[in-house]
Design brief:
This is SWIM-type domain-containing protein. By secondary structure, the protein is mainly α. The chain contains five helices and three strands, in the order αααβββαα. Zinc ion binds near residues 59, 68 and 82.
């Protein structure tokens, strides 16, 4: 569990925000810490089964900067599967990461 936690939340700010959210006494504080986590964290998403055309198994996702190692998030201006996995990990919606058409 500890190594999984360290792998998932690489940045110190992300780890701090996650722990603060876990112990937040109010829903408002929880929401604020989760937003801080979303802004600061680098998520590491590992594909368990390689998908056709994919040669990489581990991808770093930065939600705030709208970056993913696969490049689809930047190119298509909508969440790739790694972004959706990162959003699911912290319980936020992925739809706000879709640019308006
Ligand atoms: Zn991706």
């Amino acid at each position: 569990m500890a190594s999984n936690f360290n792998n998932r939340f690489k940045s110190k700010e992300g780890k701090r925000a996650f722990m603060n959210a876990a112990y937040a006494p109010t829903e408002l504080e929880y929401t604020q810490y989760m937003l801080a986590l979303e802004r600061s964290a680098v998520f590491v998403v590992e594909e368990v089964v390689p998908i056709m055309g994919s040669f990489q198994a581990v991808y770093r996702v930065r939600l705030r900067q709208r970056l993913c190692d696969c490049g689809r998030f930047q190119q298509l201006h909508r969440p790739c599967r790694h972004v959706i996995a990162a959003c699911a990990a912290i319980g936020v919606e992925w739809a706000p990461y879709c640019d308006p058409v």
